[in-house]
From TrEMBL:
The record marks T382 as: Important for serine binding. Its main location: cytoplasm. Belongs to the class-II aminoacyl-tRNA synthetase family. Type-1 seryl-tRNA synthetase subfamily. It comes from Candidatus Uhrbacteria bacterium CG_4_9_14_3_um_filter_36_7. Residues 188-407 form the Aminoacyl-transfer RNA synthetases class-II family profile domain. This is Serine--tRNA ligase.
Amino acid sequence: MLDLKFILQNPQKVIENNKRRRRDDIDVFLTVRLAEEKKAKQQEVEELRAKINANAALVKQASDTERQGFIQDGQSLKIQIKELESHLVELEQELEQELLLYPNILRDDVKTGSSDVDNEELRKVGQIPEFDFEIKDHVALGESLGLIDSDRAGKVSGSRFTYLKGDLVLLEFALIQYTLTTSLQEKFIPVLPPHIISRGAMASMGYLAHGGEEEVYHLKNDDAVLIGTSEQAIGPMHMNEILKEEELPLRYIGFSPCYRREAGSHGKDVRGILRMHQFDKIEMFSFTTPEQSDQEHLFLLSMEEKLMQGLKLPYRVLRLCSSDIGAPSARTYDIETWMPGQEKYRETHSTSNTTDFQTRRLKIRYKTKEGKNEFAHALNGTAFALGRIMIAILENYQQKDGKVKIPEVLQSWMQKEMIG
């Protein structure tokens, strides 16, 4: 959520930001009008309360003949204030709904663009492998090596679910160990978060507005949802808390299954394990000060690249343009990894600086050295979306004999060099 004071003081900047994000449907001047009406009604309510208090004092001091008149005046004033307070509640609710429409303010270095084709490629790292044999995609490799069984999962759960088996399971746990070992050196705190959170917590993270309702699995009998990434459970950990500045940056690394309905993506990437309703992910999350947040953002990106370079997979780094960034984010970097089976780079990582967009609704503050309470900034970054990175490993490390070489950095945890 944006700071209402910022909107009122900078309406043109907010209008331009919404335009860059292709959100011309948001009426900033309606928000300004509602805020002004709310302020005026609050003043009227305060004035009436003062009159009621003054009238109550007169009732106590009045003679018997005067008292009845003052009592009637007081009853009339109470009816008026009840009507005003009811109108004020309606205004507050309408203003709240308007504020939920606003995306975060983009950082100045974010390029204005109309679609993902306008995203900026910052660098490419690693060599795209060359094969002297006919390669297989991860589906064919997974089936031939007995690692992926989507047909049986379809009988049990429906489409876009799978059974991972054998060495692919061991590969996932090796990736988890590798990630934890690397992140612990940078003072990340490991977290196994709850997979079910309240709708209120999810809404405060900004993932139910802007069409997010359609992506989320809702629990029919509870006011709760399944998480689509562990950041949605880690972010609210400290809601309504005041952190200490000396604790910041406060870094977490969470592992969890992720549940996504993938609404509107029927027929897209349906083969294999690229786009599933359930997948496992390791996610980094930081709380920091506003002054440190851009530096922390580059740090999270550097962690993603460090993990990727350890696997020796070819990738490229993108800075997303204005129309391709999620509403809570002020800036987002993506990493796309080369997938030989598709002959293109595909997204495997994302890291975003959400500034105080989420912490404002969650009421997560920190106490400065001067004793002031300020909103913390929150950032997130993918360590590994495990299904996608295993696709990249299978396809990039496949061998002529149909086996798959295990990246050297993972071999100690798998106690072998080859799958198959």
